C-alpha cells in the first residue's frame, strides 16, 4: 500500500517521507497552512493535525456563556449594588471640598 502525502496527495517514497501529526508528508510539502513557510520537526506547531509556523498558529479563543435568566439576574443585581455604593459615597461627600494635587509633594 503506497502512502499518500497529506498536502499534495501524491505517493510518498521512504527517502522523502516525514511522519508528523498522525500523517505522512513529503519533506517539501510540510509547510505552514497559512503562509506556506517550509517547516521541519524543530520549528512546526501543530493545531488540529495541521502544521503552522510560530506566527500563524491559531490562538485559543475565550468561550462565552449563554445569557441565561440567572446570569442576567446576577448582572442586574451587581449593577444595582454598585449604584447603591456609589450613591452612598456621593451623598456622604456632597458639599465637601476635596483637595486633589497634581504632585504628591505639594500635599506635604
Automatic annotation (TrEMBL):
Note whether Ribosomal protein occurs among the keywords: no
Whether Phosphoprotein counts among this entry's keywords is no
What the entry lists under InterPro entries is as follows: LIM-SH3_domain_protein, Nebulin_repeat, Znf_LIM
Keywords attached to this Swiss-Prot or TrEMBL record, sorted alphabetically, are: LIM domain, Metal-binding, Repeat, Zinc
Q: Which GO terms describe its cellular component?
A: cytoplasm; focal adhesion
List residues of the LIM zinc-binding domain. 3-63
What's the domain of life for this entry? Answer: Eukaryota
Q: Which GO terms describe its molecular function?
A: actin filament binding; metal ion binding
Record's protein name:
LIM and SH3 domain protein Lasp
Q: Which organism was this protein described from?
A: Hydrochara caraboides
Q: What is the lineage of its organism?
A: Eukaryota, Metazoa, Ecdysozoa, Arthropoda, Hexapoda
Gene (name only): Lasp
